[in-house]
Amino acid sequence: SQQGEEDPQALSIQEGENATMNCSYKTSINNLQWYRQNSGRGLVHLILIRSNEREKHSGRLRVTLDTSKKSSSLLITASRAADTASYFCATDFNDYKLSFGAGTTVTVRA
Amino acid sequence: DAGVTQSPTHLIKTRGQQVTLRCSPKSGHDTVSWYQQALGQGPQFIFQYYEEEERQRGNFPDRFSGHQFPNYSSELNVNALLLGDSALYLCASSPMGGSNEKLFFGSGTQLSVL
């Protein structure tokens, strides 16, 4: 079973709007990462947040982590058509693997 | 600087056959992990290779096996293929003995089992 669960499963927004997606997990983590996947091909690392951090920014991305609620959110501001992709959260439990959720599919309409 | 390369891109096999997928890690990376991604799902960890040995294995049967070569490249072998093995197989590499802090993925091999 997959540890991370993303919500919503799909999201459709207008270009320029913000997109927010959430991830919940079940057990304590070392860090949580977000990846993007275009058209079912390879995943690209977006951002990592450690268990002792609450918020991180990278360009138009903002990630928050609430370890008490075992949840994280990814915000993409001022979305563009190129942001159309699937987004996955991945949890690191300090072993050798990442556990991925089922992903959020984001469609940005022109 | 070449990233992670996988071959072949697509593969069609029939039930019961065997398949070998190949992966070359990003330059400077010594650890290779393999993931299976079924349609509409997130990637699931198969195993990780480091120093030519399988270091950790996910919940996959023994039909799934692998190998890592001295140049850090890796192969994934699947025997006695089942219809349910149809998926995108992703290879990911990482530096420094397998830090999971930033995986670099290849474009994957799309395996179809008929």
- How many individual helices of chain B? 0
Order of helices and strands of chain A: EEEEEEEEEEE
Please bin the fraction of helical residues of chain A.
under 10%
Largest sheet of chain B: 7 strands, mixed
Relative helix content of chain B: under 10%
Computed over alpha carbons, the radius of gyration of chain A is: 13 Å
Question: How many β strands of chain B by DSSP?
Answer: 11
Q: What's the N-to-C terminus distance of chain A?
A: 36 Å
Shape of chain A: globular
Strand content of chain A: over 45%
Main interface pair?
A-B, 24 and 28 residues
Largest sheet of chain A: 6 strands, mixed
**Percent range for β-strand residues of chain B:** over 45%
Order of helices and strands of chain B: EEEEEEEEEEE
Word description of this protein:
The complex is a heterodimer of chains A (110) and B (114). Chain A has 110 residues and is mainly beta. Chain A contains no helices and 11 strands. Chain A has strands at 5-7, 10-14, 19-24, 31-37, 43-50, 55-58, 61-66, 71-76, 85-92, 98-100, 104-109. With 114 residues, chain B is mainly β. In chain B, the strands form 2 sheets. In chain B, strands 2, 4, 5, 6, 9, 10 and 11 form a 7-stranded mixed sheet that branches. A 4-stranded antiparallel sheet of chain B has the order 1-3-8-7, with no helix packed on it. The chains are: A mainly beta (110), B mainly beta (114).
Properties at a glance:
heterodimer; A: mainly beta; six-stranded mixed beta sheet; globular; B: 114 residues; mainly beta; four-stranded antiparallel beta sheet; 50% strand
